[in-house]
Input
Amino acid sequence: MPAPTSAPRTLYDKVFDDHVVYSGSGDTLLYIDRHLVHEVTSPQAFEGLRNAGRKVRRSDCTLVTVDHNIPTISRKNFKSISTFIGEPDSRAQCAALEDNVKEFGLTYFGMDDKRQGIVHIIGPEQGFTLPGTTVVCGDSHTSTHGAFGALAFGIGTSEVEHVLATQCLPQAKSKNMRISVEGKLAEGVTSKDIVLHIIGIIGTAGGTGCVIEFAGSAIRNLSMEARMSICNMSIEGGARAGMIAPDEITFTYLKGRPLSPRDGEEWDKAEAYWRTLKSDAGAKYDIEVEIKAEDIVPTVTWGTSPQDTVGIDGVVPSPESFPEAQRPNVVRSLQYMGLEPGTPMDQVKIDKAFLGSCTNGRIEDLRSAARVIIASEKNGGPSKVAGHVEAMIVPGSGLVKQQAEAEGLDVIFKRAGFDWREAGCSMCLGMNPDQLKPQERCASTSNRNFEGRQGAGGRTHLMSPAMVAAAALSGHLVDVRKLTGTHGGEDGGLKITSYSDYLTPVTVPAPAVEPTEQTAQGQTPVKAAAAASAGLPKFTVVKGFAAPMWEANVDTDKIIPKQFLKTLLRTGLGAALFWPLRYDVKTGEEIPDFVLNKEPYRHSSLLVCTGPNFGCGSSREHAPWALNDFGIRCVMAPSFGDIFKNNCFKNGMLPLELPQADLDALYEDASAGLELAVDLENEVVVRPNGKPAVPFKIDAFRRHCLLNGLDDIGLTLEHRAEIEKFEEKRSAVWPWLDGVGYAKKGQKVIAVPVGGAKKSATEW
Ligand SMILES: CC(C)[C@H](C(=O)O)[C@@H](O)C(=O)O
Ligand code: SF4
Output
């Protein structure tokens, strides 16, 4: 551990420092307290463990569920995944997860368990997510958990394997960014509007390389649910993570949760530590953004990037209102969205409404939508979902559903014509049967409006749960305040009446299951023989044609869309690389103009993109796998999405950041069909015809690993002694972090009943 410094530190600095296992010339090795696992990004990781003969180091700190692939229809007749999930690839992925949790002995909330839900909803709900912890998941929206003052970030599948095997991750320190939102929110404005407004200002690359701390009075006044919605979308702002300092609101939320520290001495000790988790006065931030709460109005998106935001009182923008370089993107977005510049946003008609996802699938989100329905009815507005609209409400977890039903919210929704579903990711991503049809337009509480995100050709407008409810009732996007009235009041007029005026709220009884002690340490010793590196192809010189691209913010949904994430393999994705740009959605034919469909670029081994933020969005390692499988081993761009960049390194690929002028020159060479050579040994890109080479510098440790094809799990395991020492200290200083789980004392892990044969002893 480094000696604590006396210089003022940020919240992020503090949590980072408290998890340093080892700090050498390369990356720092960080200890990971909590690992959440879902079915999409884990099969190849478990396979990797199996192949290397490795075990899961801390099953007591690992929590697993299914969420992305599962249907959200009634589970009344649920017997098993294999009979319930119709789509073969989805079924296979979920079945693989169930086999893996059995084989590796992990705590799993399956479809017959009320605690199942979207991975980012269940962690906080269970008290698995705690202040001051490091939390990871093979999923970009792991940033959600930062709402508790945790350092929580998305990782790729290779890193999932790394954490399973070692409970550690090599990490470089990110920059500190603070976004302060001061003042009082206007009526009808919610945390979703805050975060959409922020992303509209900073852009989807605004937080690249940073951990954002959200601060200011408007943030401090938010509930935990609202804070989670904000941190959730830090990733849409390009950041590695978002954090909010824990306070009384956090402690009250956590008290009594199944995996929270136990009341009494343990809780007191934990709370005393948590109270130290705030930025010191005078702490330095690399970037500061200040936002006035009163400037924020109910906000919606008009385009195909989360930064394409506009107030509901605004109009669809025209390409001319953007800097010239951005215009082609804007034109493409408008075309995709089927929108005419100048159209008032509140005249945009919708076909579907979706309330759910890890951004807004929590109980408060459902309450907020229910209030709008009641208020509208009271004010003589629409009380039923518009005739041409299909609207669905998908609780984020079985427990959210149970709570909502206890409060009678389901009755309000069903009476108004909303479809009331079971927990899952649902239409946020459309990896399951809930999807938009081509050109269908959806008002959605999710977090991404990328092309094809909710279904091929589907059109997504992001907004708050209150705004989605209002749009569903009105049949078009609308200012929620038109339905609720503008009565003022503490929560922006949305509490003009309460659902409880209609129905008696019932509180769901506290969980019966107590967290129990568990033999965490040493239960999964790593065999020395197994620690040997699995090895990667060496990266020395890669020479060949370079595909030229100019687009900004090429997101991973574009590199490899959701329908290809159901594979259990790392290979075979090359044919689907850039699917939405490469093939016609309707006919499946190649689009002749797309670069990879032209000669000589069908044989590219390099890619030059002049637009920034390549690989932003989701954590899917499928993106570098697809590039690799196609034959592209190096992407050159001005900047990269953080998780994508890491994922490339983990696959022996080089994401090369270069200055704009150099990229422009390389783009020209590439466009002329000339070959380039990336020479890592000498750190130069060699250009054709004797043109001056482009020099570059990459981190020495990364370079060493690439040149030698080193698998960094093996490298981490060389620090076994330091890891064990850290674990000893962790048990002494933060004892509440050990032995979480649902096992009875003496039992190593819970036996998970897969397929509903018998109820888990831990069901509550
Ligand atoms: C499937 C997963 C890799 C992905 C993510 O990382 O975000 C998904 O949750 C998403 O929202 O796109
Ligand atoms: S963003 Fe959507 S798909 Fe991704 S984890 Fe959240 S709900 Fe699931």
